[in-house]
Amino acid sequence: MNAWRDRFGQMMGRKRFVVCRLFIHLGGEQIAPLLGVLNRAARQAIDAEGDMQVLGEGLVDICQSLLQYDTYWQSAANEGNVFWEEGEAGDEFNNLFTDSAQRYLSGEPDLSRPAPGANDPLYLPVTRHLIVMITVAYEGEVPELEGDLSNLSALKAGLKALINLHYKGTLRAIQIHWSPAQLGDELTSDQLLEHFPELIPL
Description:
The chain is of the alpha+beta class. The protein contains six helices and five strands. The longest helix has 17 residues, at 52-68. It starts with a helix and ends with a strand.
């Protein structure tokens, strides 16, 4: 974050917007239930047609679930920037949204996919890797989200700060992607390295 720009913006009395993205990589066969949490939050957001209150509640559920699964955290990364113009912040949010959506096997659930039939096999391969990408835009200053989150304590504090942003009502945009997006898809170790090179081991 640019400290000089921060001071200039404060002197001018302008609103401060932050756009940031968190990557969290979880590993192990026990992480599959998180896909259910992510898909449920996505369906609720779609049903609510992007209502910020519903999006925020989904974000809270996801952050709380990630905190409960902290023993499976493998690596993480974060990025972000400060803006004093809402339009510039919106452009950056859209850029990060597009990048996240283009990552390998990432996205939201395919709601057009039919439910399993009675004769379909019950076994689906379980991925050993899951990447959750959380992109938010908020108004104000949150030190817990504006530093390096590639260590356990900082990442926990960052997720708790995201929860608090919802309750403070200062979130302006929320988007969550994950890879793989569908139960039965698999993200291999090689694909992880290729498509998520910014990850830093925790």
